[in-house]
Structures are given as structure tokens and as C-alpha cells.
């Protein structure tokens, strides 16, 4: 079988055996053999995460540490600010921030999380981009920073309203953490980096754990009946309902953070008139877009019927116009809404709330309404 | 009444010159949670192997092919409001549409239950 040859070349995370033991349906994803779903299926897994707690293996993502050669964290922060439009200099110890690596034209090379761990910066990057990200960091920051890819750690996301109670059994301190707080904690005797974050719109945690202890910790968390293992299928529908971008789909090297409606992630200090304006790759394009707007914009879309409108569906200004004006970049069914949801790019003039556009699906023009995101309100503990 | 199967995982129940068509339990299992079904219009003439309906799971859209040629006599409107019926009763209540069979000889190439079981084994 061809499939056998393909899967042999796929990498496995430290939780691979656990996925098989729990009946995970494995698929290739970003070079890894990953569970797309378990026996309950995507709908039930999605709703379980919204109502209780879901455990996700996100070990395929990259974990990278930056240490300033000078020994001063601020030097690492300043160096990293040459590659991202975010403020890292003012990011306090024990805090995390969402960021984007940009290119010379302002496009997005990857999106990532940046944490100040006091003596070093800790980065979590996308699986498909992690080798390129590491090379990018080395090409630009090698003089200022020691760059270490942490290949001996797993990453577990525990998401949902019962995540705090499930994790507090191992360390009561997690209950005190707020959204985007990060702490180095011992969980079940394992030295973990715990952040109160995730990518589902739910309250929850991401736990970086030594690879050789990952299965033990995941198993201990799954001993709690409120916690179920959740596959990548539900992770995708959860992040779509939360209005969160998926790299390579909603954002890529041809979209800027401003076009992607990620302005909120760019702090005032890095903008024109701020304390440290610009100084990052693509700054001139991005700063002028922040001031003057963009020709197109990522928007939320609610199809008016029940038919899902999926990625790559062309968008039209009217039911009978000939030329598309935009494209759906993510789309599917939102189990929490019991309705289809999508996001995509539209000309700024058509991107107003409640504007109606049309997607072409199987030769038919289906109406969609421009809608606010997130589609499902987030429940972060701020 | 005879039940026949296609290699693409549709089933047909034949009663006189009418065929009731749905997808198999094996197919719904592969598709996962069904969230939307698009049915053909009553009166439409479909040709064998033509895409006649669409079933959308959380993951993807899949065509349902007409196993034989014929005219659409009736569609299962219930699937419009309860697409999940395809997961819970693929072989029964979740039938998709009924065709007036145009040419009975087209049934010859289809599988019986034993052959279909071998096909999906």
C-alpha cells in the first residue's frame, strides 16, 4: 500500500502510542502522524471541549529558546523585535504575547507565541514553519542570541471550562494564573512551562513537558473523567469558531497582519508615534497600513443557509457578478453554533458588518453575511 | 425487494421500477459527522454515475452518485433538518432519493450484500 510508505516517513510525537491506545484516527499533518479524531468524532469532541475539557497533543509545534549572549534578557527582546511587530521589551516576566514573523514586504512568515521566562524568551511556532523559523532566527539573531530548538519537549493543550480544575489537582497555583500568564511549575514531578492560553477560544492551558514524561502526564490528566483526548479536527473547528487564524490558510507570506485584522496584536510602542516605532522587517508597509488602512481585510462570514462554505470558495459582491472579489480562507461547520461559519478576505468597502456577499459552491451562489468574530464568545480568564 | 450496492458505497432498494437510494453504514462511518445534505430536485433526470446529491461532513463535501439512470420521484426532506440521521440510520431512515428506473439492465453490474461485504473488508 502507498499509504504505508507515506506514513513510514512521518514523524511521531511523544504521545503517539497514547493516540493509538485511545483509538485515535491517525492522519499525516505537517509531517507528523497525528490524531484527527477519536471514537466520539469531531462534533462530540468539539462540544466536549466547550462544555468540559479537551486534551490536545500539539507536540508537533516548535519550541525555541532565545538567550541573550550578553546575559541580559532585554537584549534578546530587542533582537527579536527586529523580526516581529510586537513589543517584547515591555513584556513582563511570566507573560506571553501573540506575534508574527514578518518579511520585507510585510507578509507573515509564521505566527507564534512569545513568552518572557525571566532569563530567556520562549517561543512556540507552527509545525510546518518551525525549521524555517529557526533558520530565520539564526540568520538575523545569531550575533545577539543563543538559539535553541527544544526538540526534547512535548506540548499538551488542556482546553475548556474544566481545564483549570483538572490541572489544579497537580498544582494548585495554576488557578491563580490569568490569561497569557506563564509559569515554570512542577506537574507530577515534571519540570513544565505552563501558560494560560490555547487556540480554541476557551479558557485553558498549554503545557510544555519533557518528552519522556509527556505520556505519564497526559495519562494522569486523562484519568479525570472530565478530560477527553481531542483530535485535530475539533481543534480546527474550535479555532474557526473563535475567529483565530490558521497559518497557511488565513494568513501567509502574501497577507500582512493589518490585512489579517491582527492590528490588536501590534502594540502602540511599535507604531508610528510610539516609543520604538518600526525597526522590524516589513515595517514601512505595515506601519503605513496601520495609519491608512488596507485594500482588503479578513472578515468573519456567516453563511445564511445550512450548507458549509469551505476554503477556496470564491466570493462575489452580488448573486450574478462575474468577477470574484475575494476568497474564503477557512470554512466549515461550527458545532457550537449548529451552523456553518467561515472567514475570508474581502475588499475593505465590502467588509462592513452585516454586508451580504455570495460564495460560489457547486455552481450555486450562496449568501453570507459579514459577521463579528469571534463567532463564539471566548471565555479567557482575564 | 432486493438491495444492491455500488463500489462507491451507495445502496439501492429495488421495488418494481422504483429504486430508493442512500449511502451505506460503511460510508457514513468513513465520512464522520454529517452536517448537511444537498438533495436533487424532484423531476430531475439523472444519468448513471452522475453526481446527484452531496453529503457534507464536518471535514469535507462528498458527492453521492446516481447508481443508475432515472427520474427523481421523491427526496427525503427530513435530511434537510436532521442530517445526523445519516450517521444514526444510514441504511434505513436516512435514504436520500427515489428514482424511477430508466433501464433495468443497469442493475446488472451492481453488487449484492455478500459482494459488498467483500468489497469493504
TrEMBL record, chain B:
Any matching Pfam family: GCV_H
Keywords: Lipoyl, Transferase
Matching InterPro entries: 2-oxoA_DH_lipoyl-BS (IPR003016), Biotin_lipoyl (IPR000089), GCV_H (IPR002930), GCV_H/Fam206 (IPR033753), GCV_H_sub (IPR017453), Single_hybrid_motif (IPR011053)
Coiled-coil region list: none
A biological process from GO: protein lipoylation
Residue list for modification N6-lipoyllysine: 59
Cofactor note: Binds 1 lipoyl cofactor covalently.
Residue span, Lipoyl-binding domain: 18-100
PROSITE patterns (alphabetical): BIOTINYL_LIPOYL (PS50968), LIPOYL (PS00189)
SUPFAM superfamilies registered for this protein in UniProt: Single hybrid motif (SSF51230)
Entry GO MF terms: transferase activity
GO terms under cellular component: cytosol; glycine cleavage complex
Cofactor dependency: (R)-lipoate
Origin: domain of life: Bacteria
Subunit organization: The glycine cleavage system is composed of four proteins: P, T, L and H.
Role summary: The glycine cleavage system catalyzes the degradation of glycine. The H protein shuttles the methylamine group of glycine from the P protein to the T protein.
Similarity annotation: Belongs to the GcvH family.
Stated name of the protein: Glycine cleavage system H protein
Biological classification of the source: Bacteria, Pseudomonadati, Pseudomonadota, Alphaproteobacteria, Hyphomicrobiales
Amino acid at each position: 500500500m502507498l499509504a504505508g510508505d507515506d506514513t513510514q516517513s512521518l514523524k511521531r510525537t511523544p504521545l503517539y502510542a497514547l493516540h493509538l491506545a485511545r483509538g485515535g484516527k491517525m492522519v499525516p499533518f505537517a509531517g507528523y502522524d497525528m490524531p484527527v479524531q477519536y471514537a466520539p468524532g469531531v462534533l462530540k469532541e468539539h462540544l466536549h471541549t466547550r462544555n468540559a475539557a479537551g486534551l490536545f497533543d500539539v507536540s508537533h509545534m516548535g519550541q525555541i529558546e532565545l538567550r541573550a549572549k550578553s546575559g541580559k534578557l532585554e537584549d534578546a527582546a530587542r533582537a527579536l523585535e527586529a523580526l516581529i511587530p510586537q513589543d517584547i521589551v515591555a513584556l513582563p516576566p511570566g507573560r506571553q504575547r501573540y506575534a508574527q514573523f514578518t518579511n520585507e514586504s510585510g507578509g507573515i512568515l509564521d505566527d507564534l507565541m512569545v513568552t518572557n521566562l525571566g532569563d530567556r524568551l520562549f517561543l512556540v511556532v507552527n509545525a510546518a514553519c518551525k525549521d524555517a523559523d529557526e533558520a530565520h532566527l539564526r540568520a538575523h539573531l545569531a550575533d545577539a542570541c543563543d538559539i535553541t530548538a527544544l526538540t526534547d519537549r512535548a506540548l499538551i493543550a488542556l482546553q475548556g471550562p474544566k481545564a483549570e480544575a483538572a490541572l489544579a489537582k497537580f498544582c494548585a497555583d495554576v488557578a491563580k494564573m490569568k490569561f497569557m500568564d506563564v509559569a515554570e511549575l512542577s506537574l507530577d514531578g515534571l519540570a513544565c512551562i505552563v501558560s494560560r492560553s490555547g487556540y480554541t477560544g476557551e479558557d485553558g492551558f498549554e503545557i510544555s513537558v519533557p518528552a519522556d514524561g509527556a505520556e505519564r502526564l497526559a495519562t494522569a490528566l486523562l484519568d479525570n473523567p472530565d478530560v477527553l483526548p481531542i483530535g485535530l479536527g475539533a481543534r480546527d473547528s474550535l479555532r474557526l469558531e473563535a475567529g483565530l487564524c490558521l497559518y497557511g490558510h488565513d494568513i501567509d507570506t502574501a497577507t500582512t497582519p493589518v490585512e489579517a485584522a491582527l492590528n490588536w496584536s501590534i502594540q502602540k510602542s511599535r507604531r508610528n508615534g510610539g516609543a520604538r516605532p518600526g525597526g522590524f522587517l516589513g515595517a514601512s508597509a505595515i506601519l503605513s497600513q496601520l495609519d491608512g488602512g488596507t485594500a482588503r481585510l479578513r472578515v468573519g462570514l456567516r453563511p445564511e443557509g445550512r450548507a458549509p462554505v469551505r476554503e477556496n470558495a470564491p466570493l462575489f459582491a452580488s448573486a450574478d457578478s462575474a468577477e470574484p472579489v475575494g476568497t474564503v480562507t477557512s470554512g466549515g461547520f461550527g458545532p457550537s453554533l449548529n451552523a456553518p461559519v467561515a472567514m475570508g478576505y474581502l475588499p475593505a468597502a465590502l467588509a462592513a458588518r452585516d454586508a451580504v456577499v455570495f460564495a460560489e459552491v457547486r455552481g450555486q451562489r450562496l449568501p453570507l453575511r459579514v459577521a463579528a468574530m469571534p463567532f463564539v464568545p471566548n471565555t479567557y480568564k482575564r | 425487494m432486493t438491495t444492491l450496492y455500488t463500489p462507491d458505497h451507495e445502496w439501492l432498494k429495488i421495488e418494481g421500477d422504483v429504486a430508493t437510494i442512500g449511502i451505506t453504514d460503511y460510508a457514513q462511518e468513513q465520512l464522520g459527522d454529517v452536517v448537511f445534505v444537498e438533495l436533487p430536485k424532484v423531476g430531475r433526470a439523472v444519468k448513471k454515475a452522475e453526481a446527484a446529491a452531496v453529503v457534507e461532513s464536518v471535514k469535507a463535501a462528498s458527492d453521492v452518485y446516481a447508481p443508475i439512470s432515472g427520474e427523481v420521484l421523491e427526496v427525503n426532506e427530513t435530511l434537510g433538518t436532521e442530517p445526523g440521521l445519516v450517521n444514526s440510520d444510514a441504511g434505513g431512515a436516512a435514504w436520500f432519493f427515489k428514482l424511477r428506473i430508466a433501464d433495468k439492465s443497469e442493475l446488472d453490474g451492481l453488487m449484492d450484500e455478500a459482494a459488498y461485504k467483500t468489497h469493504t473488508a
